[in-house]
Amino acid sequence: MKYYVYISQTKLDMLHGQMLSPRRKRESSLGFDLKFLKGEVRRSQEPTESTYTRLSEVLEQLDQSDLIGTTRSGRRPFIRGTCNMIWATYWEPRSSITFWAHVNRGLVLALAGSAYHVLGEQREGHAASASLTSAIAHWIHSNIEEPFPKDAHEYAQKTTTYLDGEESKLSDYDIANGVWLAARFAKGQSSRFEFVAKVLHQSKWPDGFRDGKSKRIVLASPLYVSLSR
Fold it and tell me: Structure pTM?
């Protein structure tokens, strides 16, 4: 029995509809379309038995389609892992971004999702990316398929002075730097979590990113996160 702390109903609805309808099921043998549509903000709903059933079905289909890799493989659109992570709020509550951070053996891993999908109470903790914080928050809001409150979008955009015109597209280095800063200096209680997440950014740094130790940096958006024994 898993103790879930986060289930993305948005990703679950999209994946379940794409992969398990008769038409999509037939098409899955030819290739899986990973371009998600943006989800609409709905009222938060407590997960039901059907939620867990659909999650199990989606995970089974992802596995059968060989779409889930490991945190160190880098060859699949989704990753699965179990590791100690700090669970925190990224930036501040108004950003509505919930964030998990893991740093170990050359791997810097971060999960970012909408607090809209947190089940129960958000764990106390804080993560930020120094001067890149508002820009990374804006990027997360724009690049993950999750519903955020309108005022959270507006707040992130309004306070993002780093972005201007053509500079609105952060470089791979900028994203890696923002993830590295947030994960390395995240503050909060560490617990062991299990997850499956969609990869948003991944980069390799053979010489070590900034500290000479971080060889791989990954940012992903979770389908689910649960506490692990």
Answer: 0.86
